[in-house]
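Hey,
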Amino acid sequence: MSAVINDPQPIRFYRPDYHVRTPEMRSPEYVQMSTAAAITLGLVPGRMHRTSCTHCLNLLVTYPEGCRANCAYCGLARHREEARDYADRNFIRVDWPTARYDEVIERVKAGGDKGQFQRMCISMITHPNSGDDTYVLLEKWVREVPQVPVSILSNPTTMERDDLVKLKKMGAEIFTVALDAVTPEIFDRTRGRGVDSPHKFEKYWQAIEWAAEIFGPERFGAHLIGGMGETEKEILGVAQRIKDMGGHNHMFAFFPERGSLMEDWPAADRAQWRRVQLARFIIDYAGGHLREMLFNEQGQVIDFGLPEGDLADLINSGKPFRTSGCPGKDDEEVSACNRPFGDSTPSDIRSFPFALNRRDVAIVRRQMRGEDVGTL
């Protein structure tokens, strides 16, 4: 059964060797991966809208008992225990098939110099074994596939400073923190006490500070989700702070996850999201600064702080509206982690997983003006 990443339903696979779960399917022997990564590896048949592959192999540690956190927007949250088997839950819009880690490595190695992956990312969850198993996965990858650099998407709640030191010594190139909620109030409401979850805003910031010190400039970053109730000025203020520390900002548009506590929350407003994407790119790559931008009383960007011609050139390049994440080999301004349709549908793309053409840029411009127009 082949699958197409398209609207409106998430992809489901019914291939017994990868889709059926058993209590023995746990890390480090097994890992879950994004649907895009599974298609790129050839583990499941399928194709993706306007892109042939993902350039980052996103892996997720997995355990039948699941994640112990309860983030309101996450498909892996603890509150879903009664709804679906943990390893069979959707996460950032799509299913995450499970496979043996050894087979994943062998398939990547078989690609040789023509391999499509520019990066691998190990994503941790809130689980007692997550840290130790991440070490096992990292050590094996660095030994077997040294040509593909590794990023760590961390779980600060279960980590201390020495863990970051160890990860770097073992060969992790980039360390990232999924801060997601950009104010203490939104964080507490969606990730902390407000949803009976263990995460704390202060601990996440501490991990970002550790990463800046241990991994150094250009080797750490943070995930930020736009559209969870923050203003544009608030999320860009956090982006500027991370840039000033030497890091990168990996932006996600909020998209209501099926089965999550926030499944009825509206997706990120298009115009707001496009302004945030553009301003984030200016901060990270175009030499701009928050202090040069102007905001109205609602915290919306009304001046990006660049000459009109320079701003037009940036928009026309399309780069600010592509998926933001850990860098690839060819262009530091374009993420290897293109996460196809992880935060939107192909008919209403928020983060483009491919280079924009003229029509795409024209649509983005219309969206920035507040017009109700999708991408298909």
